[in-house]
Amino acid sequence: MKLLSLSTPDSTTCYLSSSAFLPSHSNGFQNLASTFKFSNNQARCIRKAGATKVTAKFELKPPPYPLNALEPIMSQETFEYHWGKHHRAYVDNLNKQIEGTDLDGKSLEETIVIAYNNGDILPAFNNAAQVWNHDFFWESMKPGGGGKPSGELLKLIERDFGSFEKFVDQFKLAASTQFGSGWAWLAYKENRLDVGNAVNPLATDEDKKLVILKSPNAVNPLVWSHHHPLLTIDVLEHAYYLDYQNRRPDYISVFMNKLVSWEAVSSRLEQAKAVIAEREREEERKRREEEEKSTTSEATPTPEIFADSDTD
């Protein structure tokens, strides 16, 4: 049995357990989870005597508009409960969970990937991912949103889904069929081999495409290799029940028709493409360096070695 020992200056040692109800996925944050070892036993925390310094790492981020800005489509009352209570609880609980552990001081994204633990989920994951998901969700909407995107985003949607209308239908289907709590996503996917010693044979822009995903509970594309989230919708009932009761399809429709900020989605697409391009340039630079080293090594003549002789 292997345990993660999280020791701190105030002599706190925590042994964290994990849950294995999701399949294992590699992640885009290389080597983060590999430095941690986890237990399959029930979580337990042993705090030794000593002073404890409480530091709040994360803060509740407000939506990028007033709480009544999306009315009557999404009411201020919904925001007061969804953002003011649920989102705040995720932030507060996360800060409590990471206090004095090896996760303290990590970025939110690093915390998500490490705590996901390749699907063998640690306690801090759900709160960390829900904080990130909700920030991303609020920023996916705007007053007077909806309609149709333009530019490169629209071209990719039409290329990868056949038409904007077909994309909307597929996104609605994913959101409406996610059982229980969870999320539907539009993501930009790199077509890459997830093998460390392999050269990816597909490297053109045509090999990258938009995909629609759905995920249970707090899971998001950050924990899946080479997926860059662009848009999301929360389908847990607290996101819409006050305004639409149990009519999830109605909520999804007005989200797509009147709330989506296509400007935010387009900006995220450009950021994703820039990140990918920078990584590809770095990979190409390293590849050329290796080739040059190999060429130099082959071109350098091996010095002749003469055996000593007893005769002149």
From TrEMBL:
GO biological process: one example: response to light stimulus
InterPro entries assigned: Mn/Fe_SOD, Mn/Fe_SOD_C, Mn/Fe_SOD_N, Mn/Fe_SOD_N_sf, SOD_C_sf
Assigned GO CC terms: chloroplast nucleoid
Uppermost EC category: oxidoreductase
Manganese/iron superoxide dismutase C-terminal domain segment(s): 149-268
Gene Ontology MF terms in the entry: metal ion binding; superoxide dismutase activity
Similarity comment text for this entry: Belongs to the iron/manganese superoxide dismutase family.
Name this polypeptide is given: superoxide dismutase
Gene: LOC101494104
